[in-house]
## 1
Amino acid sequence: MAENKDFASPPGQTTPDLETVLTRLQARRVPAGIQTFFGAGLRVWVGDELHGVPATAIFATNQIARAVEWLLTEANRQYPE
């Protein structure tokens, strides 16, 4: 299966899981991360401390799928090919 350059799932397929998304981002050298906060949810970001973190968002702990969608969208927006 060919790598989809914009990270998005093919039409009719669901969003890839977090591991797949982070692996794809790493392969493209897109700095991104996810951090858990006990009792406060997830902090998700695209960018790095050296070059700035242009995008960050907070999600409830039960919103991992939504956080993955956000990572895909922001990676495409911030790091287009």
## 2
Amino acid sequence: MSAEKETNNSFGAYIETVRKQRGKSLRATAHAIGVSPQYYSEMEKDRSSTLTAERLNDLRAFANCIELAALSLPDSITSIGYNAFANSDNLILTVSEGSYAEAYAKENRILYIYAN
């Protein structure tokens, strides 16, 4: 289910935007998902993004995000929680060919494009 639409959104930029829209501090968000503030800051800067399914579910950054249209998932993501993108019907993921994110998109019938 590949799509033609291009995106410049990154995972880190998106979770930072969601955190700020919800009025949450970096420290409080990091604590809520069980990581250090330094680690969470690295995630927002796209320097690290390995999240367990449990942490991604705790983050709840994607469920019911009907406005979410595009998101880039780096190769370092190796687990995505069940229904992590529930009701995000307009979403197009940018993934690497052969990545876990591609397999997840296929399995869950989410539109995706390949990263350059």
## 3
Amino acid sequence: MGKNIKRFFEWMKKHPIIVALLSVTSFLIVIPLAINCAYMWGRSLLEPNTAFSANDLLIFYGTVLTFVGTVLLGGLALFQNHRFRIIQKNMTTIQPYARPIAI
């Protein structure tokens, strides 16, 4: 049993993108189902019924997509600022040794 768990964690370390995608998609399915179960807790219904309308689900997934977009844009901004600092640092270390060219 221990070897299987170690192999599973090694596989997860080798494939972080697949693990992240599976985690996100499972949360996008599990969260609405958990909310739905909370709505239906204690009710005895003969027919399956949901407390969600199509409008509610579209609002939920729109909010999730807005959050993901905001996080991705924030990460992109941080990455660009980091690259800009590296370029700026390289330019300031090179600049004092540059000689003007006379024409």
## 4
Amino acid sequence: MIGSGSEDDIYLWMKYYADEETRQDWQERWPDYEMPQHEDPPYDRDRFIPEATYANPDDDPDYPTGIYDFDDDDDELEMKM
């Protein structure tokens, strides 16, 4: 992930990684931004990323989710029980 928020990082994100919807949204918000033409990333590294060997918690109905919640009254993080 690219991510300091610098002009160079935004340029690289828009050029290589942002989808068309993101690029259009960005252009609407900042109409003066000179959007680079999209290109495929110069290196094909994603296929070398190892895959997880453990189960995805989202696929397990017994996995606890939503155990933390902000109480709207005081904006403090609270644990649901």
